[in-house]
User: Which sequence fits this backbone?
């Protein structure tokens, strides 16, 4: 059987804010019958993750390209890989059978051909929506969990600030921190998001950074006794303001710097004397660094989900053709929670 496999690629390197016109949909014939002796696995994509960090892979140059296998440059015309959920339709690997639900590194397209050694594993949905596997039970959740507990190392009663707090990672960080017994404030870019953080997700407080003319003063207002942990998803001026308000022995978990991804002139310049004299721990990290936490993360998070103590936010679009708008929307502040594209219904 032969099918048409549509997939998304870029026309040229994307060195500024992404536009839908930077992308194009290509289509190729794909046989769902493997050649004798093949060890490939063909999967039908169900959900694919849409993440801000991918913008760095689309650039003509980024220091991240050579830093991690997850960040290698994507050449115009090539497929774009991302975390996703799929169903096996053909397998030359004895560990996988037709009909298996799998999660792993897929392409932004209808189907993915996974070569030997590709990142793919079977999973049990455990009664949760399949989309959770690329959100709260996937790398977004592990990033939030590891960044808070391994880098931040919170103590009960400590004060936690989360930027981009309504995003895929931030909204989970705040909830984990609250459940642990911390005081949590988040920043977001609209009144709607601020209300959601406080009324739905249980943040102690939240503010719209777009309404603040002085971020350092704003954080002083929300944290009169200082910040113990800053979970940084933004970089730029917000990072500078947070460092200025950190307590001695404060910890900064640097997850992302979305304000800097599309503006080459915007770079954080925190007061390094504060870092030195307050002995602030300042650490970048990747979820892949903390796979040893996976079982603890899954057990804890599933318990929170079953008891209703944690509420995952999802923003789901439909169809391969929606991927460009889903991705560009991340940089326009339109999404709330984890951005996912549903390629097809299960």
Assistant:
């Amino acid at each position: 059987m032969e099918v048409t496999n549509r997939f998304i690629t870029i026309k040229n390197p994307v060195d500024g804010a992404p536009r839908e016109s930077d992308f194009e949909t290509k289509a190729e014939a794909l046989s769902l019958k493997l050649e004798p002796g093949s060890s490939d696995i063909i999967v039908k994509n169900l959900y694919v993750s849409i993440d801000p960090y991918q913008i760095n892979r689309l650039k003509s140059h980024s220091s991240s390209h050579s830093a991690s296998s997850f960040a290698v440059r994507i050449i115009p015309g090539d497929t774009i890989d991302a975390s996703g959920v799929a169903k096996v339709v053909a397998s030359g690997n004895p560990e996988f059978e037709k009909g298996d639900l799998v999660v792993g590194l897929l392409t932004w397209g209808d189907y993915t051909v996974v070569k030997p050694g590709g990142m793919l594993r079977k999973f049990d949905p455990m009664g949760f929506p399949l989309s959770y596997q690329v959100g709260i039970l996937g790398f977004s959740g592990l990033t939030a969990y590891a960044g808070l507990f391994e880098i931040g190392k919170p103590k009960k009663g400590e004060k936690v600030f989360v930027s981009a707090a309504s995003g895929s990672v931030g909204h989970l960080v705040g909830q984990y921190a609250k459940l642990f017994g911390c005081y949590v404030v988040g920043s977001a870019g609209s009144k709607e998001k601020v209300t959601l953080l406080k009324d739905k997700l249980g943040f102690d407080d939240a503010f719209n950074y777009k309404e603040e003319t002085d971020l350092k003063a704003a954080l002083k207002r929300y944290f009169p006794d200082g910040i113990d942990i800053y979970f940084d998803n933004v970089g730029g001026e917000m990072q500078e303001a947070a460092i200025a308000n950190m307590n001695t022995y404060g910890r900064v978990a640097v997850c992302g710097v979305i304000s800097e991804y599309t503006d080459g002139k915007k770079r954080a310049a925190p007061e390094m004397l504060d870092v030195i004299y307050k002995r602030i721990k300042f650490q970048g990290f990747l979820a892949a660094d903390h796979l040893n936490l996976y079982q603890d993360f899954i057990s804890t998070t599933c318990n929170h989900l079953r008891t209703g103590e944690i509420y995952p936010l999802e923003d789901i679009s439909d169809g391969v053709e929606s991927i460009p708008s889903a991705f560009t929307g991340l940089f326009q502040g339109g999404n709330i929670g984890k951005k996912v594209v549903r390629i097809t219904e299960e």
In short: The first helix runs from residue 54 to 57.
